Amino acid sequence: MMKKMLLAALLICAAGAGLADPVEGVWKTKPDDNGNFGHVQIKPCGAAFCGTLIRAFDGSGKEIASDNIGKNIIWDMVAYPDGFYDDGKVWSPDRDKTYNSDMTLAGNKLAVRGCMLGICRDGGTWSRVK
């Protein structure tokens, strides 16, 4: 009986492990102070989520080369109920600043916010690319 219960518990955990979190995917950022924006791929990293810049664009939407491609924009973001992610960091390339961050997911929109010393900066609403 105990073996059957243990096997059932393991199967439930294995089935749940295959489900992707809704925040996973590629997101288009809000334009920065220079009008540039990027595509950030969010995926699990340990027990949290990280986002890496995978493409960069100028204000007209033309893809541009950037030294920031491949750099983490988001890290240590922990999932909480109801589409809320917190306890992470976000790096703003245009200001070269790292902020304590939280995110709120609603469908294909991701509201990103960063705070430093009690002052918060709205990172804007990102749109799902895929």
Structural features, described:
Strands 1-2-3-5-6-7-8-9 form an eight-stranded antiparallel β-barrel. It is mainly beta. The protein has one helix at about 1-15, and strands spanning about 25-30, 35-45, 50-55, 65, 70-80, 85-90, 95-105, 110-115, 120-130. The protein has one helix and nine strands.
The CATH class name reads Mainly Beta
Quickly count the domains: 1
> What percent of residues adopt helix (DSSP H or I)?
10-25%
Q: Cα distance, first to last residue?
A: 45 Å
Q: Major sheet, described briefly? A: 8 strands, antiparallel, barrel
Total helical elements: 1
Q: Low-confidence parts, pLDDT < 50 over ≥5 residues? A: 1-17
CATH topology: Lipocalin
Spatial shape: globular
- Number of beta strands: 9
Radius of gyration: 17 Å
Mean pLDDT: 86
Could you give a quick summary of the protein structure above?
With 130 residues, the protein is mainly beta. The chain has one helix and nine strands; from the N terminus they run H-E-E-E-E-E-E-E-E-E.
SSE topology:
Elements: H1 2-17, E1 25-28, E2 37-45, E3 48-57, E4 63-64, E5 72-80, E6 84-92, E7 97-106, E8 109-116, E9 119-128
Antiparallel strand pairs: 1-2, 1-9, 2-3, 3-4, 3-5, 5-6, 6-7, 7-8, 8-9
